Amino acid sequence: MTGFANPLAPKANRLQARSAQIKGWVRDTLGLDPDTPVTVAELACQDEGCPDIETVIGILEPDKPIRTARIHRPIAETTAQVVTEALSASSD
Amino acid sequence: MAVPDRIPVFLLSGFLGAGKSTLLNQLLDEPGFSDTAVIINEFGDVSVDHLLVREGETAISQVATGCLCCSGSTDLRATLFDLHCAASAGLCPPFSRVIVEMSGLGDPAPLVNALVGDPHNDATLRDRTVDRVFRLAGFVTLYDIVNGPIAVDRHFEALKQLAFADRIVLTKTDLANDPATQADIAALPGELAGINAGAEIVDRRQMELNTLFAPRPYVAAERGEDVAGWLTLETALAQEARHGAGKGAALPDNRHGRGIQTFSIIRAEPLSEARFRRFMATLQEAAGPRLLRVKGIVAVADDPNRPRIVHAVQHLASEPVILDSWPDDDHRTRLVFITGNVDPGPVRDLFRAVIESDPAPLQSLLAGLGRRVSKPLAPLLRRFTGLSGRPS
Q: Residues with Cβ < 8 Å from B118, sequence gap 6 or more?
């Protein structure tokens, strides 16, 4: 990371910016290589008593089955702490 | 690159009110599209979209009351199979191109997977037929320059629709008359590049329909890392669901959550057009951005044989289109509402109050639309309706 911010780069939209943050938290928590694909999506939650929308994280490590983690809140409300908790729960 | 000789299927997306039906109407008027079958999908409990598109000689298949992306890939494949069978049996005109109008809230991932994904081991004869006969040949997303920026900032589906596109069409650019807005439009391709750097972006006013829907290879991997990730995640979740892998593994029946509501108002008696306009204006003022979409057909008392087609998106309402006749035997007013956390009850009460001049305490009706809007809107409501807004 050079710390250089291109002033002419397109503005990131709010959901995109938070998705990028979530990916960063996942990589930091799991100690993943920066090139390991991590994907973030929002879906309606199926579980009784849970909030309306959940964030689903997919970790696509080479030569391994995709690993998923679910966070019972929308992308915009997801924090580093809940990402860490969800990853911990998904590995149990 | 050689393109296999299969019937090209185009996905047409765009968030609620982006102008998909308008574009389809323009397209169906073009002689070059007379061989096109159209699949219309809508999110709502009463289907009206097929009324908003003129049918002509085109094979139109409507997937009503539900979202193709919510029902998974099976409904799209079933509809394509049915169209193929109907054309083979001479039950509908033959076609050499298919356009699927996605619901405005449609998630592209399951639909793209349905058309490009590898069939799983238990694929049926129907699935194999669809794979043999059809191929995804393009993904067009309409981006409404007025409401698009808010939609993309708030709704993940809107973001995904842009990211999956290989062509993005800027709509409602004709509403930009001042130099500042025109400058904003000129800057849009740069801003949209942050979501999708590879898509070709065209202004609705300059687009060539033949080019927009010319078959080309659609390579999902070329759409960027996010799209590839979403498709892989979708496949993984579908496999988890098939194998019942634990709590929360199933794909949701409704991807949009309980925060997105859809409901309808149906009324047999024709309405006063002036009162209907007052109702719409009041509702738009009160609900604002939470009124994601209103569409429908309205029977007008002064002109009952010529229904009005109405469209509204958040604060923006199009001037109603007057049809020369009813498109089907059902001559009732049918309105579909898609909202973000606006309950049907208060909207129906407001409709009744304005249409029937019911002297109900209107502040309490508005209160149902949200606490923050009821108080400041009471004077507005009195102005629009001429009714008392004082609590009883």
A: none
